[in-house]
Structure formats: structure tokens, C-alpha cells
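Please describe the entry underneath.
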Amino acid sequence: MRSGSIFLVVIILMSVVQPSAAEAYENHVILESNDDGEGMIFFLGQVEEGPDGNLYVLDLGDSFIKVYSPAGQYLTKMGGEGEGPGEFQRTDGATFGFTENGKLFFSEFIGGHRWVSIMELNGDLVRVLSPQLDVFFGVQAASSLGDGFFLVQFAFNSTPRGKGDYFLYDSPRSLALMDSLGVIVSEIVKTDFTSLISYSSNGGTTNLPFTPTFAWAPFGNNEVVWSDGMSPNLKVLDFNGKVVCELETPLPYPEKVTQSDLQEWKRERENQIKSRNPGWWNRFGRVVEEYKKPLYDKPILQSISTTPSGNLLVYGMDSFSNGFVYWLLDKQGKEVTRISADASNVHFSENHLLFVTYDEEGAPQIHALKHFKDEVTAITQMGVIVEQTLGSVD
């Protein structure tokens, strides 16, 4: 979405029994952009289906979680920018989800509130849950378990290391089990990859390209599946961090980062920064020219999610087309199906396959496709819909 643009979300239900590349499906709902009215989306963050069947959209632009009925009617909003409980102090990096007992929760990244806000679906605050850590942290993501427990991904302050005339920053992250009082019961996995570069030891950083990921999802009873994106195998860990097994998958091995890859990243970064703030480029941004030797190979995946049928949906990049690839894997890691599609935010909810495309103006089209427990058909339909959407843009 283009910076500064304002869009209204409107759901359009399309009813076509026999779909084709130029038609939509009767089980397909689009939350589409428009110009005016109530329910504006300033900057799309996250879309989820709630336990009540409504669709919830996190708007990073005005710090509200906005609620729409399955038929598209704007209902209400919750959160908002503020310093108090139940409000967002900082939405960039914020995420939300739903608890096992039907509440909504949201958390914030470094610079935001250091707690998890838990709310009723009508927006009433239930309580805040503060992780009991004695270091500075932010909550990057969380998943609710039963009895008030959470799986929580923490991010910690980056540590700069001098490298000639510039600094590289290591960015520690961890996945932990937290109880209903905020006590950290166990640390499941922790990484400390280098991901930032700067001329300064106290800020002005730029994200490095092609750094390892931190992808995970709940998997079975008291287990998670996890990957840093640097191997086709996915690790299954118990809540104490013990490796239960590794799932062998058909994902490719990481490729080497070439000098051409780095030069393209530097050109894109320079153009992006200069278009916004030429002074910032001269003071801080030019440091990208110092990054001459890649530290890592290209990660093969960016995210993992579980599906209602217990499958795994894994998202990565297609090195040939520079597009997105989605693998649907069974519980043993074997391929069920795969698809290349220029869509983002793709994941299965209880009733829908949710995904996002963008029109020629950069406005998001948020799609909810009912899957009727047939995940392969839903993935296939998504491919047709994305192709249709891109065709309409062209």
C-alpha cells in the first residue's frame, strides 16, 4: 500500500457457480478498498477470523483492530493509540490473536507496551499479562494455549559490534512458554543472528538482506515446529526445547547470495531512502555500501502455520520468478500440494483461507475463501483468484 493513502474496506460477495480464471467463487469474499465511509483501513497489518466468525483487521495506520461481519458490514473497532491498557503504544510490529476461551489478545514489538492485552470481543479490557523478564524486550508474536498459557516470541535489544568504520547488530530472539501470571516456564529456542548495519553504535540501522528467519507454529500436544529457514528440514521441539524429531520436506536447500543480489538490494535501498529523505541517506543509509560479503545464504522460508486439518502451510520465495511459493505439507512433512501465487498474509482459519493481494494503486484486497475442510481445493482456488486479480490489474 502506498504511504499516506487512505482506503475504505468494503466486502463484496461474488456468486458464481462455475469459476474460471475470469470469474470468482461463490465461497469467496473480498474486503476491497474504496474511498469513503466508515471502516477505513490506513495501513493493513493483519487479518484473522474470530471465534464469533467475524473478520478482524489490524490497522497499523490508526492503531485500531476493526471488526467486520462475514457479510461485510463494519461493526466496531477496538484498541486505538494510547498509553493505557487495551491501547496500542506502537503498532509497527504489533500482532493479535484469540485465546482458547474466546478472548482477543494483542501484543507489541520493541518500543511498545511490554505486556499482552486481553480483551472481550466487544472491546472491553479483561486484563494485561506482563511477561516476567528482567531485560528489555518486545513481543513479536504469541499463540494462546489452554489454561491461560501462551507461546511467546520475544525480541531483545540488538547488540552492536564494530566492523571497521561501521557496526553490525546481532538481534536476539527466543520462543518461550509463559504461564497465566507471566512467568516464563521454559525457553524453547533462542537465536542471535546478525540482521542490522549502521555507521552508529546507537541507532540509524538498516536491515540486512537474506538473513535467517524465526518461523514457528504450535504442532500437536506440547510441541512446536520451528525453522530458521536455513534447512529444508523442520524441527519439532517440545516445550523444554528438546528436539523430538525433524520433518524431512521437499523444500529446496538455501542458495548462495550473489554479488548481483547484493547490488540489486543496495540500489533498491538507495532509491527508497533518497525518495523519502536524501539527508538520511547521506548520514546513515550509505552504510549499505559497506556490506560486501553476505553473512548467510538465502533463507528458504519465511513463515509456518498450522491448518485446521493439522497440515503445515509453509511460505517461501521462488528464486526463479521472485514470487511467493506456498507448500501444504502433511504432519510428516510430505508435500500435499504447492502453489506459486503473488499473495501475502496467507493462512487457514477455522472456516477460511485468508490472503491479501494488491491493486494497481497499491490498495489491499483482503480475501476470505471458505475452504469447507478441503484445503487442497482452497489453495487451488486461491491460485485462480490471484491470477484473475493480477490480470485485472494488467
User: Anything to note?
Assistant: The two ends are 17 Å apart (CA to CA). Residues 1-23 have pLDDT under 50 and may be disordered. Helices lie at 259-276, 278-283, 375-393. The chain is about 10% helix and 40% strand.
